[in-house]
From TrEMBL:
Domain XdhC- CoxI intervals: 12-68
A Pfam family recorded for this sequence: XdhC_C
Superkingdom assignment: Bacteria
Sections of the chain in a coiled coil: none
NCBIfam families listed in its UniProt record: xanthine_xdhC
Protein name in UniProt: Xanthine dehydrogenase accessory protein XdhC
PANTHER family per record: ALDEHYDE OXIDOREDUCTASE MOLYBDENUM COFACTOR ASSEMBLY PROTEIN (PTHR30388), XANTHINE DEHYDROGENASE SUBUNIT A-RELATED (PTHR30388:SF6)
Residue ranges occupied by any XdhC Rossmann domain in the UniProt entry: 179-321
Stored InterPro entries: FAD/NAD-bd_sf (IPR036188), MoCofactor_Util/Proc (IPR052698), Xanthine_DH_XdhC (IPR014308), XdhC_CoxI (IPR003777), XdhC_Rossmann_dom (IPR027051)
The species this protein was found in: Castellaniella daejeonensis
Recorded name of the encoding gene: xdhC
């Protein structure tokens, strides 16, 4: 999730002093992964790096710097969770603190613009060394400085003697889980409410423009269209699709359009087993091979979560999508380790 970018720019727009806190490096067990971020101002806090004493200590350090407004704008603190903070995780967390100023607007906007590309952007934070001032550099992933590592979540690069700056390099890219939802009814509303808080991108489709709320989460885009089939054709590969409109005939039409694609990560259709059987008979009558429609998930939702209330269905579907996301991440990680060159 990249809500921290818009929140940081919001603070700059209002001249509200704030500190960006990033989990830069984790050793052992910790509440959050490297790359997790939060923003701290004198009176507010946004997002989380794991809660508990760690987060309280980080907010205290950030606010102390805001009150004094002296010292470096960027610094690292290493916090042992067990001895120092009394947390059971027992690991070591290195936090990067960045006092944001108007001069930071450029790199924030560059990172936000980079999220329009699947590759995203590399953000490199140099913390000084050999008399150099701290700086932030944003580049395309293939233009990253040589000799570093591409740490998707964030990682400290520790220089050897005479090798310059302590550096954090992180790749910030849009979440690979793209969900396309057809239908702005009760279940669609409940599902978008949940997905708006999760690491994914959502395209929400319905012809009935009046059903969409006035505001939606930052990771949700609305398509008010009477040609929803075009959204199917334009969606990127490996997208997840959920068909849950108010009209069974429209559901069937969208299903048939979606069955033409072979690059779909998830294909969910709201309804019962009875609806599934009826649709299968119709597909068969149209000459669609059974192996094409066998991949449709209907009923939708993680097995074992029962209930017909919109919120319950939404939770079950969100759980199913998150499981899919985790499986894809594990597969990608295993593939990367297999393809990594031997040293």
């Amino acid at each position: 999730m990249h809500a921290w970018i818009d929140q940081a720019l919001w603070c700059l727009d209002r001249r509200q002093a704030a500190v960006l806190v990033t989990v830069a490096w984790v050793q052992g067990s910790a509440p959050r992964e490297a790359g997790a971020k939060m923003l701290v101002s004198a009176g507010h806090q946004w997002l989380t790096i794991g809660g508990g004493h760690l987060e309280w200590k980080a907010a205290e350090s950030a606010r102390a710097r805001l009150r004094a407004d002296d010292g470096p704008d960027r610094w690292i603190e290493a916090l042992p969770l067990g001895p120092a903070l009394g947390q059971c995780c027992g690991g070591m967390v290195h936090l990067l603190f960045e006092r944001l100023r108007e001069s930071d607007r450029g790199w924030l906007e560059a990172v936000r613009a980079g999220l329009q590309s699947p590759a995203g952007r590399v953000r490199e934070v140099r913390l000084g060394g050999d008399g150099a001032a701290p700086c932030v550099r944003v580049s395309e992933p293939d233009a990253a400085a040589p000799g570093g590592i591409d740490a998707d979540a964030g990682r400290l690069l520790r220089p050897g003697p005479g090798q310059g700056c302590l550096t954090l390099r992180e790749t910030i890219r849009p979440d690979p889980l793209h969900v396309v939802i057809f239908g702005a009814g009760h279940v669609g509303q409940a599902l978008v409410h949940i997905l708006g808080t999760l690491p994914c991108r959502v395209t929400w489709v319905d012809a009935r423009d009046e059903l969409f709320p006035g505001t939606v989460p930052a990771n949700v885009s609305i398509e008010a269209t009477d040609t929803p089939e075009a959204v199917i054709d334009e969606a990127p590969p490996d997208s997840c699709f959920l068909i849950m409109t108010h009209d069974h005939a429209l559901d069937q039409r969208l299903c048939e359009q979606l069955l033409r694609r072979d690059d779909v990560a998830y294909f969910g259709l709201i309804g019962s087993q009875t609806k599934r059987r009826k649709f299968e008979h119709r597909f068969q009558a149209r000459g669609i091979p059974p192996e094409r429609y066998a991949r449709i998930v209907c009923p939708i939702g993680e097995p074992g979560i029962e209930g017909k209330q919109p919120a319950v269905i939404a939770v079950a579907v969100a759980a199913q999508l998150l499981r899919l996301r985790s499986e894809r991440e594990r597969l990608a990680g295993a593939q990367a380790r297999t393809e990594a060159p031997a040293h």
